[in-house]
Structure formats: structure tokens, C-alpha cells
Specification:
Layout lengths: L9 H12 L2 H5 L7 H5 L6 H20 L3 H26 L1 H20 L4 H25 L1
Helix pairs in contact: 1-7, 4-5, 4-7, 5-6, 6-7
Length: 146
């Protein structure tokens, strides 16, 4: 299901929903995992490296969007998701399935839909900020494992 944002009004709801889901994984234990493939997917790339690569792509996409390269921005977000976040899903789901799921939806559905709908650049930047906040939480979880 694709959730559509109507301008900046949806931003507070997005922030509240995302931030409130961050610690639910601890309360609920092992929650839903997107698929068996995602949970068993392994990569030789360190999760912290993947997170940094995703952040780089998100900055690039935000810059492209601000420059009105809307299609390029959407493609960059898709690359961040398909080529990087997909490999982070399994390891992150093992630590916090709710954080994995909420971040996935923000990247895969919400951000790309907002870009395709040509939402204001401020909304795009705010969404990237929330995604980066989630990635920071994920990074802290992985660092605790080391």
C-alpha cells in the first residue's frame, strides 16, 4: 500500500509515526520480517558501510531533487534501496524488525512517492532527515554488536 503525503501537513505525522516505531522492536521482540529472502540475505559488506552508502545516495537524491532533476532523484533513491538497503534488511531485522520495516517503507514507498508527486523540496529534505535518523539508530545497534 502506497501512502500519499499532502504537502507539509503530513510531515509531523511522518515524524511521529517513524519515531514511535523505533523502539517497538524491543517491546515486540522478533516481529515481522519482509520475506524469508530478506531475512536470510547475506552480504560481505559491513552494515555500517551500507548505511554510509545509503546516506550518500540520499544526499545525492536530495540535491538532484532540489535541482529539479526529479527522475534522477527517484532513480537514485531506488538505487539506494535496491543496491544497498536490501542487503541491510536481514541483519537489521534480526536486531530491530520494526526499525527495519519503518525505514524500508520510508525509503521504498514514502520518499519515492513524494518525489514522483513533486512534493515541496522541504518535505523531501525532512523525509531524508527522518530516514537518516533511523539509519543512525540502526548504526548504533550494529555498533553495539561489535
Amino acid at each position: 500500500m502506497i501512502r500519499k503525503f499532502s504537502g507539509l501537513i503530513a510531515l509531523p505525522l511522518l515524524l511521529i509515526a517513524s519515531l514511535s516505531l523505533l523502539d517497538l522492536g524491543k517491546v515486540m521482540g522478533q516481529g515481522l520480517i519482509e520475506s524469508e529472502a530478506a531475512s536470510s540475505e547475506e552480504t560481505s559488506v559491513d552494515p555500517i558501510t551500507l548505511i554510509n552508502q545509503i546516506r550518500t545516495f540520499l544526499i545525492q537524491a536530495s540535491d538532484q531533487y532540489a535541482a529539479q532533476n526529479f527522475d534522477g532523484a527517484v532513480q537514485t533513491v531506488r538505487t539506494a534501496y535496491l543496491d544497498h538497503y536490501e542487503y541491510l534488511e536481514g541483519p537489521l531485522a534480526a536486531l530491530n524488525p520494526q526499525l527495519m520495516e519503518s525505514t524500508e517503507l520510508l525509503i521504498r514507498e514514502d520518499l519515492t512517492t513524494a518525489m514522483e508527486d513533486r512534493e515541496p523540496v522541504e518535505l523531501i529534505q525532512a523525509m531524508v532527515t527522518v530516514i537518516n535518523y533511523n539509519l543512525g539508530k540502526a548504526e548504533a545497534l550494529f555498533q553495539q554488536q561489535q
